[in-house]
C-alpha cells in the first residue's frame, strides 16, 4: 500500500487513480439494506460492490521476524540500516504487528496455501457431487422464467462452456 495509509485515504487514492479512467471501476449505486459500498468493480459475471472498512488491515502481509533479523545482520549497510528499527516499531506499536512470533507466524500467502491444502484434502476424501442452483427470476415469482437471467447464470457457472466442450467430443464428467 502506501505509508501511513488509512481506509479513507486508500479509497480516495483508488477514486483518483481509476474513477472515470478505468471502465471496470465505478461508483456504487446506493442499495437499501446492504452495507455502504465505497467502490464497484465490473467482473465478467456482473458488478460487485466493495466496502473498504478494514481493507488495509485485512491485506497486510508483514515480514516474518526471521527475515527482518536476517536483513538487520546483512553485510549490505543500506539493507541493515533500512531494517535497523523495524523490530522495535513492531513491538512498540502496540497493534497487531507484534502479536505473532516465531514458528506460528504466517504470511497471508502462506495461510492461503495452507487453507487451500486443507480444502483439497477434504475434497479428495469425499465424493462430491455439485448441484448448480439457478434463480429463474429476480422477483421470486413462481412460474416466471427470465431467459436472459438464466442464460447469464449458465454462462457464468461454466455450464454452457462445458456443453460446448462435450459437443466437440472431448471427455467430460458432467
TrEMBL record:
Lineage: superkingdom: Eukaryota
Annotated GO biological process: actin filament organization; system development
Keywords: Actin-binding, ATP-binding, Coiled coil, Motor protein, Myosin, Nucleotide-binding
Domain Myosin motor: 1-174
UniProt cross-references to InterPro entries, sorted A to Z: Kinesin_motor_dom_sf, Myosin_head_motor_dom-like, P-loop_NTPase
GO molecular function: actin filament binding; ATP binding; microfilament motor activity
Keyword Coiled coil among UniProt keywords: yes
Chain intervals for the UniProt region annotation (Actin-binding): 116-138
Gene3D superfamilies for the chain: 1.20.58.530, Kinesin motor domain, Myosin VI head, motor domain, U50 subdomain
Coiled-coil spans in chain: none
A Pfam family of this chain: Myosin_head
The UniProt record lists the keyword Nucleotide-binding: yes
GO cellular component: cytoplasm; membrane; myosin complex
Protein family according to the UniProt entry: Belongs to the TRAFAC class myosin-kinesin ATPase superfamily. Myosin family.
Protein's UniProt name: Myosin motor domain-containing protein
Amino acid at each position: 500500500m502506501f505509508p501511513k495509509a488509512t481506509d479513507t485515504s486508500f479509497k480516495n487514492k483508488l477514486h483518483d487513480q481509476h474513477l472515470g479512467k478505468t471502465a471496470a471501476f465505478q461508483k456504487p449505486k446506493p442499495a437499501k439494506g446492504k452495507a455502504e459500498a465505497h467502490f464497484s468493480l465490473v467482473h465478467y459475471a456482473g458488478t460487485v460492490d466493495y466496502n473498504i472498512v478494514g481493507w488495509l488491515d485485512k491485506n497486510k502481509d508483514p515480514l516474518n521476524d526471521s527475515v527482518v533479523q536476517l536483513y538487520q545482520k546483512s553485510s549490505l549497510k543500506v539493507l541493515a540500516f533500512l531494517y535497523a528499527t523495524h523490530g522495535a516499531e513492531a513491538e512498540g506499536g502496540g497493534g497487531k504487528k507484534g502479536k505473532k512470533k516465531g514458528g506460528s507466524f504466517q504470511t497471508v500467502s502462506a495461510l492461503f496455501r495452507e487453507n487451500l491444502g486443507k480444502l483439497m484434502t477434504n475434497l479428495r476424501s469425499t465424493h462430491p457431487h455439485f448441484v448448480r442452483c439457478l434463480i429463474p427470476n429476480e422477483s421470486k415469482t413462481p412460474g416466471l422464467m427470465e431467459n436472459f437471467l438464466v442464460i447469464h447464470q449458465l454462462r457464468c457457472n461454466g455450464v454452457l462452456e462445458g456443453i460446448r466442450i462435450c459437443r466437440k467430443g472431448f471427455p467430460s464428467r458432467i
